[in-house]
Sequence to fold (327 residues):
Amino acid sequence: MSPNNYFASDVDGIHGKYEIVEVEADVHIITSGGLRIPAHSTVLAATSTVLESILVRPQKRRSSEKTIRVLGVPCDAVSVFVRFLYFFKCTEEQTEKHGIHLLALSHLYLVPQLKQRCTKGMAERLTIENAVDVLQLARLCDAPDLYLKCMKFLSSNFKKVEETEGWKFLQDHDPCLELEILQFMDEADSRKKRRRRHRREQSLYLQLSEAMVCLEHICTEGCTSVGPYDMESSHKRVPCSNFDTCQGLQLLIRHFASCKTRANGGCLRCKRRWQLLRLHASVCDQPQDCRVPLCRSGRKPPTSLCVPMQARHICMYRYKMTAPPQL
Fold:
């Protein structure tokens, strides 16, 4: 019996040995180059539903020999494909050499194990030159993971990809895909901007939260240079853990208590201090016991333009400073 009619089953794959079982092939796979690859209909039908439907389909010509034509693919790629149907094995060298053709065959004949292996290998070997070709193939073969990987690669290396022949060919023959790529890049840029804006907002929220904590700390316990009126002043207070924020607030309070410009007249630092007081009043959950100025009255809308000035005077009388005011 011819060796081509033998069915090799991988019964000892750990040691790389094969047991030859004499089962004669009952179907031949014919390639574009005229190569006839003997195979077994039971194996092909068990691994691919598409091949199963082809095998059970009645042939146009009455002949005892069953044939399956696999055209448009190199003979070596078809051989690797048939071998995978038998042993579910494919080396990295074979995947690298015939990856594009194996992906097309695995999609056409519904072999998900081979398709997954090909998409993974091709995603790892993306280059500037083949990115456009792989993207087109991923789109045709319904490989979303590979498609997304190619899109991200193109978005990150667009200036270099734009100079390749593949991109120029895409512009001339597939404007819809070109539009998809440009839209993806625009959406990716918008997402980056939203993430940056979100990070800035989160940073601002954290700073304001820390400022509220420091404001309560200054008004209840006091810090290095500013404290409540009923506490003894001391030049030797130890800086708190958030001293950078506390120091800025203390300078702001000292300016607020001694500013000669009306808050509603355009003093930016006084307006900032007033905004902090109003913000604290809006978030404080214990207004009855809170020692921050205007905590209770700050919850109500101002009845006149003199409220900021009233806040400045209350602050002046309720707080004392251990050093001369700094304007």
